[in-house]
Amino acid sequence: MVKNFLGRFFEKFYVGLILLFLYAPIIILIILSFNSSKSRAKWGGFTLRWYKELFKNESIMNALYTTLIIAFLSALIATIIGTAAAIAINSMKKTPRTIMVAITNIPMLNADIVTGISLMLLFIALRFTLGFTSVLLAHITFNIPYVILSVMPKLKQLNPHTFEAALDLGASPVYAFFKVILPDIFPGVLTGFFLAFTMSLDDFVITHFTKGPEIHTLSTKIYTEVRKGIKPEIYALSTLMFITLLILLIIVNRKNAEKKQIVKI
Amino acid sequence: MTDNKLINLVNITKSYGDNVVLDELNLYIRENEFLTLLGPSGCGKTTTLRIIGGFETPDKGQVIFEGKDITNLPPNERQLNTVFQKYALFNHMTIAENIAFGLKIKKKSKAYIDDKIKYALKLVNLDGFENRMPNSLSGGQQQRIAIARAIVNEPKVLLLDEPLGALDLKLRQDMQYELIRLKNELGITFIYVTHDQEEALTMSDTIVVMNQGYIQQIGSPEDIYNEPKNAFVADFIGESNILPAIMVDDKLVNIFGTNFPCVDTGFGKNKPVDVVIRPEDIDLVKPEEGIIKGVVTSLLFKGVHYEMEVHACGHDWLVHSTDLSPVGSEVGIWVDPFDIQIMNKPESEDEEAVEIEL
Amino acid sequence: MKIRNILNTRTPKIPLQKSVRPVIGNRHTKWLSFPYILWMAGFIIIPLIVIIYYGLTNQDKSLTFDNIALVLDPINLRALRLALELSLISTIICLILAYPLAMILNKSKMKSNSFIVMIIILPMWMNFLLRTIAWQNILERTGIINTVLKFFNLPSLNIINTPSAIVLGMVYNFLPFMVLPIYNVLIKIDKDIINAARDLGANGIQTFLKIILPLSLPGVISGITMVFVPSLTTFVISTILGGSKIVLIGNVIEQQFRIGNWHTGSGLSLVLMIFILFSMAIISKYDKDREGSGLW
């Protein structure tokens, strides 16, 4: 019995340690966003100054807008292309399907430095100016596999007879898709969208190579300041973004839990 | 089957949260017995099996095996083996490796293990399957491998948790005979869990009918079938007519206003009772020759027999017969006194765990 | 009740028939993948060909292997070797840390699996660069750890700008990618399989080594892949936590491209890609079933 108790204590301790490890930097960043001293190790007192200055800082705001727009657009387009592809792949026979799945896995295994460089060279070889569009195209490219890999499991879980039932009741395949299949796989599509959005939001390496001199995303902006010392406004921005995502997450989780409750009753 | 009590369950109580699954269950199992725990979903039969196997510990009570208290012994130290519902074969190992698993743990020699594998596969009619992978086998084959894997360890008791549930009817029937054959060849105790009463009747020496954590009746298949002790057992086993009646006196019962001679005694005078009459025990005769008269209201051909409903004395009687009486014909109902089974009406909720609509 | 003759119990061999799986869509559905295929061809395959082209040619468009041979320069070789060393160490550390964590999480009676996943993934939603910079903060000579140590009059920790700091950065960033695949495989192991092993006599350790470990291998392989490759090719972590002193192969390649040496940069990238392919091949030898398992 003692052994059991000790074992359980060590388990909780271990998990706690790892969580501390994972969250320490996050906590520090959040704390620093309220630090009135620009120093990174000394606490100068609580302030909301950086949050106010954040919105006045044009270059950071521009980078933020660029980041958000690229993330949203690339996730959207990737979701459309990816969902279509997932449906197609799901309907293929075993061999072509295995090939397609393998190809889909390639970009995920590829180091992002290779993807970034290869895209950059492509654009240069085609004499395509590096800028917003090149970044957008690059983001769509690495986002599509994530969408496919989010939608495919949902398709597999689907009861394939529901599609046939729809046809049996007179629906055309297209109508059946939109009314029967899509609503059912929607969680997977949504997950894919969010995943793509997050990946795009956080990307640095591929953006770094494909962006050209004019635009900045948040990540590339931060990188330029690594040597100089990070402006505290950026800590404020990251804290805001983090908390926003956290709140979104809690809301989504609550909704899911509600749905599950309703199903039980 | 000796009278030697191999396993004794004493006052076993088990709850999951608010749900009391077993309440002071007492049961003993004899050596070489084929004992079946029979009941609907949620009656506690699987929990009982898992407690015997060691995968659950009872909140209260003891499990005695060959005189020793094994309640808190982990499963790997008990001399029993289990055949799981979904086979639980190790998919990353070959059939031979699956079967050899328990033997390797006991550090048996390679020669011994190889012999045992051959013997086991032969026993379940799957010679030559040593190097196949579980995924390449059909459901019935996987089931037999699961059995083989368990019995090579020469357990004193084999626990089987609804092993035939996922098989189709023909295969299930074949496997039932296989299991009986196996038990006789191996000469060990089988504890079997199922919700299928036909299965229980076919294979068991003893049936334990359970409902909502309580034992309703223990007996041989014939006893349970012919002399159910209460309405639940009567209704669960086979089809039956369960009728409210009044026990007029010893060997005389009044059903729907007519006196039927029967053979049971000791139920008192003018006491309300429940009566069970199996459909196949009702003879349809000429109206004048029956104890009561009625009209046939439905007729179905079931292959083995005709199933008819006869409306008599305001009640629909279920009748099985190899002779048919057409719908609308007037018939007489006759029952041999021996085939009328009297049961006590339940006195309290504890006795009759389930209300049956009669 | 007749017991059938033993010889008659042999069931006839029925060929294993897979039930026909109805397809969602019709024979035209596969064309929905067309946009995707075009996109992949245009933005994945062609760019790779372009790298190969640049890697194997000179400014004057003549074929050469000089760019590839550049990896043999002592500086570049050292960068490659260091990257290999550090990424291997990081992968191993991640594995050692992640596996027990995945097992503990699997055992936990938490009602929601996705809640556990969220907790592990959540840190990933803070910007990757900032998280790494935060570690710079923590590890610096005037950073948080040393401030605390100085307070207790303890010797200071000087791992910033050393390979150890980079390993820490790699482990920090990629640990969730090792935990999640392993966790996902572990929760899918049917509890009855564990029960069967115990029933057959295996104790805890034997059950782990013979049943759990082999069955969790696809997850382990997934995890290794998702940690090793990004670690091998990183230049950000080495820049932020290594100062200008520590140069990994990623840094070398990035520098080349920064100063416009596309041919040499491509040549070195080709070498890197070959290394990645090589490691993938080795890893896939252990993934015999070709199952693999995703992040989710």
TrEMBL record, chain A:
PROSITE patterns noted in UniProt: ABC_TM1
Residues passing through the membrane, by range: 12-34, 63-89, 109-130, 136-155, 176-197, 234-252
Primary localisation category: membrane
Keywords for the protein's UniProt record, in alphabetical order: Cell membrane, Membrane, Transmembrane, Transmembrane helix, Transport
Biological process, per Gene Ontology: transmembrane transport
Membrane topology: Multi-pass membrane protein
A Pfam short name: BPD_transp_1
InterPro entries, sorted: Bact_Polyamine_Transport (IPR051789), MetI-like (IPR000515), MetI-like_sf (IPR035906)
Gene3D superfamilies according to UniProt: MetI-like (1.10.3720.10)
GO CC, alphabetical: plasma membrane
Residues of the ABC transmembrane type-1 domain: 64-252
Highest taxon of the lineage: Bacteria
Cellular compartments annotated: Cell membrane
CDD domains: TM_PBP2
Family under the similarity heading: Belongs to the binding-protein-dependent transport system permease family. CysTW subfamily.
Name of protein: Putative membrane protein
Organism: Herbinix luporum
TrEMBL record, chain B:
Keywords, alphabetical: ATP-binding, Cell membrane, Hydrolase, Membrane, Nucleotide-binding, Translocase, Transport
Catalytic activity as recorded in UniProt: ATP + H2O + polyamine-[polyamine-binding protein]Side 1 = ADP + phosphate + polyamineSide 2 + [polyamine-binding protein]Side 1
InterPro entries (UniProt xref): AAA+_ATPase, ABC_SmlMolc_Importer, ABC_transporter-like_ATP-bd, ABC_transporter-like_CS, Mo/tungstate-bd_C_term_dom, P-loop_NTPase, PotA-like, PotA_ATP-bd
Domain ABC transporter: 7-237
Cellular component GO terms held in the UniProt record: ATP-binding cassette (ABC) transporter complex
Enzyme Commission no: 7.6.2.11
Source taxon at top rank: Bacteria
A single GO molecular function term of this UniProt record: ATP binding
Functional summary from the UniProt entry: Part of the ABC transporter complex PotABCD involved in spermidine/putrescine import. Responsible for energy coupling to the transport system.
Family, per entry: Belongs to the ABC transporter superfamily. Spermidine/putrescine importer (TC 3.A.1.11.1) family.
Protein's UniProt name: Spermidine/putrescine import ATP-binding protein PotA
Organism: Herbinix luporum
TrEMBL record, chain C:
Main subcellular localisation: membrane
Span of domain ABC transmembrane type-1: 80-283
Key word Transmembrane helix present: yes
One Gene Ontology cellular component annotation held by this UniProt entry: plasma membrane
Chain segments annotated as transmembrane: 36-56, 82-102, 114-134, 165-187, 208-229, 235-253, 265-286
Keyword Transmembrane helix: yes
Membrane topology label: Multi-pass membrane protein
Compartments where located: Cell membrane
InterPro entries attached to this UniProt entry: MetI-like (IPR000515), MetI-like_sf (IPR035906)
A biological process from GO: transmembrane transport
Keywords: Cell membrane, Membrane, Transmembrane, Transmembrane helix, Transport
Family (UniProt): Belongs to the binding-protein-dependent transport system permease family. CysTW subfamily.
Name assigned to this protein: Putative membrane protein
Organism: Herbinix luporum
